[in-house]
Amino acid sequence: MQHFFTTLAPFTKTRLILSLWYSLILLLILIAFSIVLIVTYNSDVARIVLQQDFGSHFPRTLSQTELRLIAAQVRELRHTAFLDIIVIDIITLFIGAVLSYFLAGKTLSPIQKNMISQKYFVADASHELKSPITTIQTMCEVALRSKTRTKEEYKKVLEQVFDESQRLGRLVTDLLSLSVLDTGSSDTFKFLKLSTLVGKKLSAMEAQFKKANIMLERSISPNVILYADADKVEQLLIILLDNAIKFTPKGGKVMVNLNNKAQTQLIVEDTGIGIASEDRENIFKRFYQVEKSHSVTGAGLGLAIAQSIMQLHHGRITVTSTLGKGSRFTCIFPKNAFRKKRINKISL
Ligand code: ADP
Questions:
Q1: Which of 89, 206, 292, 327 is 20 to 30 A removed from 11 (C-alpha atoms)?
Q2: Helix (H, G, I), strand (E, B) or coil at 289
Q3: Ligand 1 atom 11 nearest Cα
């Protein structure tokens, strides 16, 4: 038995063990009910037989033959009832075991999905971490072996090592962000003026847009208040703006819109390369990158972080895009229930 369980896949094993526990509980309940049933029936059976055979004439003095007849009848009835109960118990236990197996599968399914995605995540993360480390090691090894290198060549190696270590640093920061977001803590939430936050960030990034020769347009509603984590919302904006710069060719345009109509909406739209429909549903997955964009910096974690940030704020992020024309990312924050009540108490 021990060997049988150890050879099974961990989830099949857990499912079987869980089903066995469910079935065991059912068996105990069945045994308890059956005992109560048998005891009650046993005490009633003689009375039932006597009433059946003699009706209202009972009680009266019975002859020896009648007593033997009644005793045989009682024994037979008890025997049949006992067999019936056992058969019903076996059938119930069998159905219960099948249902338990099904129920155990249902219970374990989300945990299993979670574990599988964690497994893939760790594999992807290790792969992404390994590649810059390998590059750094190879470059250092080659540089150390060669005795005839010039000062400029060493400088070039150091620059490459620096670039790779920066990539490594970004990746580790992204992984940490995701793990913090996975905890789903909203302890750092406070009321903040989103209009000011977005305005400040756009001003701070103006130089980046200029350098990339991309025009930045903004339309920001004043006095948009949000109950949120300021650092995370800023991180979300940086991710979307960084991507817009990365995937918009020179001479393009990026429009940022913050409005507070039915809901609070933050929109980042660009006139970049766009995203094909088959990629659109995958870009929010961890480590997903569109094939053509592999050469651009990034590990495919930006939009996964953006989505986690929106989930933390009970909002959502959507994308619409036309290949070759541009993309539009919309972040929708739900209306805040306590905003109206506490808005006067906020110091902004
Ligand atoms: P990365 O950090 O590699 O950019 P993201 O998760 O931010 O990863 O994005 C995933 C993929 O989505 C990118 O590889 C890119 O192909 C695509 N993408 C994201 N933003 C845009 C955009 N504004 N325009 C076109 N493609 C985009």
A1: 89
A2: coil
A3: 289
Tell me, in angstroms, the distance from the centre of ligand 1 to residue 243's CA.
6
**pLDDT (tens digit per residue) in 123-137:** 988 988 998 899 999
Q: Is the separation of the CB atoms in 161 and 136 below 8 Å?
A: yes
* Pocket lining: 270 vs ligand 1, CB cutoff 6 Å: yes
Residues of the chain scoring pLDDT < 70: 1-8, 49-50, 52-60, 292-296, 336-348
pLDDT tens figures, 332-342: 998 754 454 44
d(CA 302, CA 296): 13
Nearest CA residue ID for atom 12, ligand 1: 283
Does residue 178's CB lie within 6 angstroms of at least one atom of ligand 1? no
Is the CB of residue 252 below 6 angstroms from any atom belonging to ligand 1?
A: no
C-alpha neighbours within 13 Å on the C-beta side of residue 59: 4
Q: How many alpha carbons lie under 13 Å from residue 243 in its C-beta half-sphere?
A: 30
User: To 10 degrees, what angle do helices 230-246 and 194-211 make?
Assistant: 30
Q: Is 238 in the pocket of ligand 1 (CB under 6 A)?
A: no
305 touches 312 (CB < 8 A): no
Q: What is the pLDDT of residue 4?
A: 62
Cβ pair 287, 117 in contact under 8 A: no
CA 304 to chain CA centroid, Å, is 12
Stated pTM of the model: 0.73
Helix (H) or strand (E) holding 220: strand 215-220
pLDDT of residue 224: 92
Provide the residue type at 20 as one letter. L
* Inter-residue long-range contacts of 289-294, CB under 8 Å, 24+ positions, other chains counted: 293/246, 293/247
| Ligand 1 neighbourhood includes 247 CB (under 6 angstroms) | yes
The CA R_g of the chain, rounded to the nearest whole Å, is 36
